[in-house]
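Hey everyone, long-time lurker, first post.

I ran two proteins through the pipeline my lab uses and got sequence/structure pairs for each. Pasting them in order. The first:
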Amino acid sequence: MSSHTFVAFARPRTVIVVALLALFALVAGCGGDEQQGSTVDVDATFMDVAPADTADASAPPLDTATPDTRVDEDTTAADTGPPCEGCAFAPCEGNGDCDSGFCLDGPAGLECAKTCSESCPSGYACRGIADASGDPTFVCVYEHITYCDPCRIDADCELGLGGKTGARCVDDGLGQGAFCGTRCEGGSCPEGATCEAVAFGDETLELCRPTAGECDCSARAVERGASTDCSVDNALGVCDGVRACGPEGLSACDAATPAEEICDGVDNDCDGVTDEGFEQVGAPCDGDDEDHCADGTWACGEDGGLVCDDDAESRVELCNGLDDDCDTEVDEGFEDKLKPCDGDDDDLCPDGQLVCSLDGTGLVCNDDGASQIELCNSLDDDCDGDTDEGYDGLFEACDGADADQCPDGVVVCSPDRLSTVCTDDGFARVELCNDVDDDCDGDTDEDFPTKGQACDSTADSDLCADGHWVCADNALVCDDAGPSLVEDCNGVDDDCDGKTDLDDPDLVAPLNPVQSGACAGTRQTCGGSGWEPGYPAGYLGAETPDGAYFDDNCDGLDGDVAHALFVATGGSDNASCTLSSPCQHINWAIGKTSAAKRQIYVQAGTYDEVVLVDREVHLFGGFDGDWVRRPYSEAGHKVVIRGAKYAPDGQYLTVRARSATASLNDLVLEGASPGASERSAGRGLSSYVIHAVSANLTLRRVEVLAGDGASGAAGAAGQG
């Protein structure tokens, strides 16, 4: 289709062909590809300027009943350098160093107080303090002197001069102690503190509390050794302790850690009771001596357990019919008492009994019978625990007077019971090939010398000696039962036929890893380093889908996966429009084309949109759900693009091409139909399937279905 021409496919009253030189459009006052307007971001800086502080020119009344008038306005003068000596807020060591006559604690230590002739700075309050004559002088007192001091009661947090400040002793709730929180009406708090609402019963106060972490000790708190109560608790109990400010800062809680109660005279679990569970202390006990007599008492040991202090001499059980060691047993240790025993004769037969010796320390046998001798008769004649001892080898296997060396007989007692004989009277054994020493000579299969040597079976097709001669059914056989070795491309004679790699006609090349399209059935080639891919020319090269519907470059589909964008009705518009993550709309994919990717592959389905072609792009349909490309006449391969009303032109379009070179392939383009009475300036709207201006547009295998145009307005009645 040549430049400066547009073709309209419609089904109105007439078919219109118009030659145009150019069309221009202004969209919201902006031009350029895909620009929908612009937004200018301006960074603005806002300054919150508070109204200027107005000082209270009147001095506070000298009312000692209500001296703690608070002035929250910050009237601190601009910093022009350190204050003059003796001036307000200048460092001091005593009242005589200050023009006001008062050297008080300030945020950084002792400082000269400022009188209340003017308003006090933020964090200070006007308070009356008696001078040397007893008259009150109103000066600015720093309200947060006790902030974060360890405390036990609210009184620990007061300044001790000029009335109460309202500071409170606040428990941290974690057992780590309580610390002063100073009042912060007006939002004034020391550095590192935040004004927080703290509940005290039904009352809620705003107090200065640490922004993060816990309180540090001030120099004042260290000097005074301020302290607070703390505790350590666990599942075993709660132990109380103290934390105090010292040269190293706030100490850790010195409370003991509740522990399981042991016997040590200490309340280990801090429950107010000592050594509970060890009520046996003081009771009689038997120590670690050998007797069972309770000669000691229970006491606490060094390991926290009970120990018995029985250090009396152990009592020894004697053979005397008494329980000497208090274990409720009589003559234990002499368990053989009254058992049968053998005396000093030559046999070991128990012809007597064991009885207590005269001194009670042992047993003696009262056997005085005659000795007995051992015979070969399976009896223990001399009562020594052994039967037929002296007759070695009895009942063991033995070899008789035959030709083999196999012990086929058994040693038994002779008829006179005074010696032994062998019962082997069988035939001699011969050696067979069976992995057994048949003739019992210490050698196995010695009559078959080739056993174990390599061999090649005729059952496989190779010539490799992969087996060994082994015994089977008392004869030698070759056990080469493995699969036949085949020739491979590796510089080795794999099948042992004397030929290697390409010299061996038995060498069979494997298929190439990629078997798609033109690569189907192709095989690898044998090279110097082994098997190498043997792909045809054009493998993974550039490919444009055509009417052959064939994968020429073996990349898995008819086309060029690496240089194309993908669209599917089930996709989602994204930045890449890849095969694995296709986009949903054709126009979106057109907007993502580049010099490297101008082809767009569209999966089968219906796309309701006006395709806007404003650059070089090539659309290809015919792809099914598995991205297999076939003619759209086949089921599952049809791509239908249905147009709609394109607002900027005020007409119904399916494809709108402007100043671009493009192609449409394997598509069904369906015109959209306006309403029957839809008109513009009295003329019925038309339906254009393809509307091209200054465009070079190529259509291949495209079906065009015209839409219906709308009827125009009725004309005036004619003359009669």
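...and the second, right after it:
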Amino acid sequence: MFNRDRWREIFETIGKNKLRTFLSGFTVALGIFIFIILFGLGNGLKNTFQEFFLDDASNAIFLYPGRTSMPYKGFKANRRIEFKNEDLEDIRQNFAMLTEFVTPRISRSALTRYKNESNTYTTRAVAPGHQMVEKTILMKGRYINERDIKEKTKNAVIGRLVVKDLFKTEDPLGKYINVGSTAFKVVGVFQDDGGDREERYIYIPFTTRQLLEKSNDKVDQIIVTFPKELGHTGAIALETSLKKYFKDKKSIDPRDPNGIYFQNLTDDLKQSQQFAVVLQLIVSFVGLGTLIAGIIGISNIMVFVVKERTKELGIRKALGATPKSVIQMILQESVFITAISGYVGLFLGIVVLKNIGLKLEEYFIKDPYIDLGTALTATLVLILFGAIAGYIPAKQKKNKPEYLYIKGSELGTHKDNDKTVKVIAGKYENAEGPEKNHNVEPIYFHVVLNEGKEFSCEAPEGHNSFIYLLKGELKIGDKDHNKTADSNLILLEKGNKLTVKANKKSEFLFIAGKPIGEPIARGGPFVMNTKAEILEAIQDYNNGTFAKY
């Protein structure tokens, strides 16, 4: 790993093959870059989902009045149901052990002014418990309290963006704003993780709103929070009890679905969490798919790189390089290039995510990010597969020419009245040759075929094949091959079935194998693709410009 000569050679190879190095590195960097971007955007989509659906308290039940759709106890259908202050007290008294906060909500819109600035905002008239429901975060001052409710004070808590719109850089605490025709004193400023819309609300005491509306005691809706220890089942039971209680109190037919509406956030939360799990699976699937695409890309480019280096590897082996050293060199170079390129893609992906975050909120992608551990793991996986992708073709290239001695007794033999087939490699009928597991998947038969008889066999369609006629006269397909001299070589067209007929007793070799896709030339100790490459190798060797081992 720390062989100085090998590192020098790797850098020289990279310097001489800039395009090849660039293609390899670019594929790795692009793969990890796309993975980080897509995974980060998926997480940004999850953030948006959580902001919209998981921002408020999950242990709350909302009650909304509606209109009845059935007559009941002398009341006609289409009767409007109203909530009043006494309903709040009834819930506190009858469900004290099952509830935490009971708060009304009365919503109105009004033009709000401060000095020369004005805008229309929604005011929410609430009780102190509403802060827990909305998870409102106080930045300055205080929230609506029980004294405000009891004394019906004209105090207001305004959102961060209301301050920005009306007060600019001025401190709003203690200042008065005109909400419609009524002046309210600002006693607090809040922010809300729910987004801009939530930060443009103005909160006032609900009793003050009722006072301004002719001293009535009506409320738009009621919000009830309960201890989280109740769980999902307990929350459903509480909702059922509230529904029964109010339908009885308001004289609503128990079968009427429209008199009062209930929204149980615990039930909604469970459904939202199920959707969040599905969303996480989608994000993971996108990330995995991108990673697989990157692995395939790296594998393809590394196969090309090793194939393109056939000449170089051939020269190395001709000069005495061991198969192990060839593999180590390619692996080391492959890991070096993929590691550098992978971390470049990692860095660029994280930088891009950070810079595009705010620009994507309008597309419902908020704060896209990727966990550093996930990014590093993905990068290491790509580096690992880059090494594997370099190793496999290098391993195939490392094979040294070898002589295989096979005894006649080891050959598989098939014999019948028409022919005798000795199998050196491959399989014929039940006879199997001793040569197996070679990367070119060879078929090697020695056939003696009696006069007028046929020999048939199958070979993979992609194999190259030929017949070496030792003696005799053959008919192959529709063509007669009547030259009986020894050493006749008959090249066969590609196909998946061979049929041979002997015009007279004949002896021949049938040989087939998967093509390696490279021309072959030899000269002295060198085996190359072309004669020109052999001459170049000899010249490099004589000039002393080739690598030494």
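Reply from user beta_strand_b:
Welcome! Quick read of the second one: The longest strand covers residues 497-513. The chain has 13 helices and 24 strands.
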